[in-house]
Design a protein that fits this description.
Layout lengths: L2 H22 L25 E6 L2 E6 L12 H14 L5 E6 L11 H4 L17 H15 L1 H4 L4 E5 L2 E3 L1 H8 L2 E5 L3 E3 L14 H5 L1 H8 L4 E3 H7 L4 E3 L4 H12 L4 H17 L2 H15 L3 H13 L1 H10 L4 H10 L1
Parallel strand pairs: 2-3, 3-4, 4-6, 5-7, 6-9
Antiparallel strand pairs: 1-2, 7-8
Helix pairs in contact: 2-4, 4-12, 13-14, 13-15
InterPro entries: ClpP/crotonase-like_dom_sf, Enoyl-CoA_hyd/isom_CS, Enoyl-CoA_hydra/iso
Protein name: Enoyl-CoA hydratase, mitochondrial
Family: Belongs to the enoyl-CoA hydratase/isomerase family.
């Protein structure tokens, strides 16, 4: 099979895969009490959570909830995946840049509603006991697969991070092929302290076990400069140079044939995948649900219900609260 024929077959398989996904997954959830994530997207309608445009062989995907620091809501995972697939179908596109509008790249999942309601009122991550792990898994597994569209994209993806790329925002950014940050931007996974586990599990594959443990076992945030020094991201530059730096890298790649970009990326991805990336994601996605239904996770949610999510997060991240002791205290009430 010659190269031209090979690419035609790949293009046919991509289109067939996308069509099949849309037919099989009009809704992720059948439970009436759970609001569905958007599995498919009509390109004739405007996106609700992002902006999309193409210029000079580069597709620009911009998260567009600036009033919420681009926090992840119900629609965003599916729209990210749809936009990536759209760029992959477009023969005029060779590189994809993902960024965030406003003051941040992405501040994580928009969990305020879930945290500040009684258990079971918002069924995602906040179930009544006994806990059904399947309910959590299918929600977060869908989100993980949507974010991993950046990893699986046939075309190279660059995440441009400014402000904050934390919690679920770091999940998104680290799925990209390359991440370039502003030097003073912050990245990390604070819910590792309580009420979360990073479902895309990219930290170990980017940092190695010891440095990944340093971040995951403390929940600490690090700056773009620190992230670049540790090897978590490709590069960190002053924020006023961020657009220029990312564009320069995209411009360097966009003159490489699409098939060449695809071939090199697949070989490199295969190494991480053979090391157990997908198995780690399956485990971390299951554990993510566990963290919100453990005694400490329940105690955190009860505190957020009583005092507000922002105050609970601030207390969690400060390290001043021992959530095991708080769970025991609440259990005696």
């Amino acid at each position: 099979m010659n190269a031209a024929r090979f690419l035609k077959v790949l293009n046919y398989q991509l289109r067939a895969s996308i069509s099949s996904t849309q037919q099989q997954c009009p809704r992720v959830f059948s439970t009436s009490s759970v609001r569905p994530f958007n599995c498919q997207y009509n390109e004739e309608e405007p996106y609700k959570t992002l902006l999309y445009h193409v210029k000079d062989r580069v597709a620009y995907i911009t998260l567009n909830r600036p009033e919420h620091l681009n926090a992840i809501n119900y629609e965003m995972p599916g729209e990210i995946q749809s936009a990536v697939e759209r760029a992959n179908r477009d023969d005029k596109v060779r590189v994809i840049i993902l960024a965030g509008k406003g003051r941040a790249f992405c501040a994580g999942y928009d969990l305020k509603i879930s945290a500040e309601n009684e258990r079971g009122e918002v069924n995602i991550g906040n179930q009544k006991m006994p806990w059904d792990p399947y309910e959590d898994f299918r929600v977060l597994d869908y989100c993980t697969k949507a974010f991993m569209s950046l990893w699986h994209s046939y075309k190279p993806t660059i995440a441009k991070v400014h402000g904050y790329g934390i919690a679920g925002g770091s999940d998104i950014a680290l799925c990209a092929d390359m991440v370039i940050m502003a030097e003073d931007a912050k990245i990390g996974y604070p819910p590792a302290r309580v009420w979360g586990c990073p479902t895309t599990a990219m930290w170990t594959f980017r940092l190695g076990p010891e440095k990944a443990k340093r971040i995951m076992l403390t929940g600490d945030l690090i700056t773009g400069s620190e992230a670049a020094k540790m090897g978590l991201v490709l590069e960190a530059v002053p924020e006023d140079k961020l657009d220029e730096t990312v564009q320069k890298l995209a411009d360097r790649m966009k003159t490489v044939p699409t098939n060449q970009l695809f071939f090199q990326k697949q070989v490199i991805n295969q190494v991480a995948e053979q090391m157990g990336l997908f198995q780690a994601q399956r485990l971390s996605t299951l554990f993510d649900g566990m963290t919100r239904h453990s005694p400490e996770g329940v105690a955190f949610q009860k505190y957020a219900l009583a005092h507000g999510f922002k105050k609970a997060v601030k207390l969690r991240d400060s390290g001043e609260m021992d959530w095991t002791e708080e769970a025991e205290r609440q259990g005696k009430e």
